[in-house]
Design brief:
The protein is an alpha/beta fold. Helices cover 38% and strands 15% of the residues.
Length: 449
Amino acid sequence: MITHTEGESNTSEARRAWAARHPDAATRALLARDANAFLHQSLSSPCLSTIAKAEGIWIEDTAGRRYMDFHGNSVHHIGYGHPRVVAAIKDQLDALSFSPRRFTNDVSVELAETLGALAPGDLGKVLFTTGGSDANEVALRIARAATGRFKTVSFWDAFHGAGFGAASVGGEATFRSHIAGPLLPGAEHVAPFNCYRCAYGHAGPEVCGLACARMVEFVLEREGDVAAVIAEPMRAVPVVPPPGFWKAVRAACNRAGALLIMDEIPTGLGKTGRMFAFEHDEVVPDIVTLGKALGGGILPIAAVVARADLDVCGDFAIGHYTHEKNPVTARAALETLAVIRDEGLVARAAELGAHALARLREAVDDDPRVGEIRGRGLMFGVEIVADRESRAPAKEAAERIYYRCLEAGLSFKISAGSVLTLSPPLTIAQADLDRALDIVADAIRAEAR
């Protein structure tokens, strides 16, 4: 189902106008059932519309309206229902549908070996979980065990999952503000890299001296006993780190004896034009977490990939999950990785992403409502502002643009209140990508009228 956008009220004017234009009985009936059946929470339920079918880059609602999906909760790198993944899952169901945790099976071992071979450096030991939040919590447990410390450094506005530990190191208010009582102790936060002028060429690291990285170093030095820094290599808002940022943080972690954990759950597996987003910055973390798209847009599976020498938890449980070595989810992941490799989707994401950024800049970069056009690969966004001088978010304008796009057949996410965040499948045809970019440009220009 399509939900309301980030920061949007369920009763916003744009939302009400959308609902008034689409009063078909099938949609109303299912939305009413959803509202009655599910616990309500931000960004999930109640919903805006319905989904009856998902295939390739498309989602279709119960009234037959079709939308290109440029959000997909970051699961649809290879599109929805890829025929190779569907066939692989069906075959695996016939061969071996489940494996109790104390037994192993060939397909799960093969997946672990494949991920270990894909990851750079000494990253090579693997553990599977059912979701990204769990994967990040496993990574934190490994860091505690390996260092004998419990403190962490992470970033405000980051998202690392909805679990209690993941929300503690995360920095999004939606997942923290209504939890009664304290979160995990020792979860220190610093301001995120957010220097658009540095990261996008308006200034350079020589101007600020990478003050954002020095904030991390300051906390590591001041605390003295931090187990790990956990972070998204590229913020999914999206914001690209300034040149040299991660090298500086990596060096600071080495000096402080802290591990570096990279959460690649939305950005990994080729989305940014490299298999892992941290490869753009020429660093290798101590632990990397993967998820979402790993299941091919069909099944839930996530993974922790750690340095071999961090295999120090054999005497206790760090991720004792019932589906830890599920052969069906493992087969879906193996076939997803094969599709990414065989169809050259990593290089394709880099090529199409550069094309998309260039086309958007040509179309709307001179619009006073556009603050920045930014991203890497097929994760990019357009910041909508009240004016370029103040860079104040124009939330209501962004919502109106979003609903114009939805009306024209394009669904995406609004991040940070007013950033049109576009994340299409890596399999998208260039003609469809161009059509979507035209829809966005037309909707932005319509704000002037």
